[in-house]
Design a protein that fits this description.
InterPro entries: Rossmann-like_a/b/a_fold (IPR014729), UspA (IPR006016). The chain is α/β, with parallel strands linked by helices. The protein is 35% helix and 19% strand. Helix 4 packs parallel to helix 5, helix 7 crosses helix 8 and helix 9 packs parallel to helix 10. It is globular, with a radius of gyration of 19 Å.
Length: 284
């Protein structure tokens, strides 16, 4: 493997010899290509499978590893992933949500949950159920609730959609049980936003203008579309993503996974039909 300076763009790729790596690899390959990044491979098995063995098991891995950084293995896989991302100033981590045993409340296994709690950079979580099929980014779903925290996800979502030539679907969910955001700077939906004949058109234009202003100058060839759903946020995001055959859901997260916190993120993690890009609150 060639030596690569840490100032290069890197994407951390946890690998083992299980089926979850077969599901993650097509996603990681696309992310690395779009970001023009270098993979930083973290082997999560102990003892680690030799690199030639991984190449034999996953033939497509040979090209990916030509200029890869191979991180030192550690007893604690989550610690190894977090340290590799921190030391290499990585753009993101691309990993499976689980392998076999997963927690009922998050849909993650212990490794993925620990990485999510301590993540030093954005994390792309891949459902192993997707299998080894090629992965392209054609439709990106960006849920927004009008708060500055969720709006911070606009820039990376639009940048990714622009590089991929994908469409960006900005989704706002309203409902009878939805709590109006209290965060300073929030753009609160009008009372009748779920009824297009009322205040929806003007509010939607203002909402999209705000998203675009926060995103910088990233042309999206596939277009940016404002969409509306009515109901509980988690189920509606999943339903919308399924109905529009989304390839990626982008969520900004405040960093709390305690019981009764991050209910939307928890639901989406458990039921999402596609990979999820989770952005930490502090990510710029």
């Amino acid at each position: 493997m060639s030596e690569v300076p840490v100032e290069k763009n890197t994407v951390v790729l946890p690998l083992d010899s299980t089926a979850r790596s077969a599901a993650v690899l097509p996603v990681a390959e696309t992310v690395i290509r779009l970001a023009q990044a270098i993979p930083c491979v973290v082997q999560t098995e102990m003892p680690p499978t030799p690199i030639p063995g991984l190449k034999n098991k996953f033939p497509g891995l040979k090209t990916l590893l030509e200029h890869a950084i191979i991180a030192p293995p550690r007893e604690n896989p989550a610690e190894a992933i977090i340290r590799a991302a921190t030391e290499n100033h990585s753009l993101c981590i691309v990993m499976a949500m689980h392998e076999g045993q997963k927690k009922a409340d998050t849909g993650l296994d212990a490794i993925a949950e620990e990485v999510l709690r301590e993540m030093p950079c954005p994390v792309v979580l891949v459902p192993p159920e997707r299998g080894a099929a090629p992965w392209r980014v054609r439709q990106v779903v960006l849920p927004q609730d009008g708060t500055p925290v969720t709006a911070r996800a606009a820039a990376p979502a639009i940048a990714l959609a622009g590089r991929a030539g994908a469409g960006l679907l900005v989704l706002h969910v309203s409902g009878a049980h939805a709590v109006s955001p209290q965060e300073p700077g929030s753009l609160t939906a009008p009372r009748y936003v779920d009824q297009p004949q009322h205040e929806w058109p003007a509010w939607a234009r203002e909402f999209l203008d705000r998203v675009r202003s926060l995103s910088g100058e990233h042309p999206v060839k596939g277009g940016i579309q404002m969409c509306m759903a009515h109901g509980e946020p988690g189920p509606e995001i999943v339903r919308f993503a399924r109905g529009h055959r989304a390839d990626l859901i982008v969520l900004s997260w405040r960093g709390e996974l305690a019981p009764r916190c991050a209910l939307t993120l928890r639901y989406v993690l458990q039921h999402a039909p596609c990979p999820i890009l989770v952005l930490p609150e502090s990510h710029e």
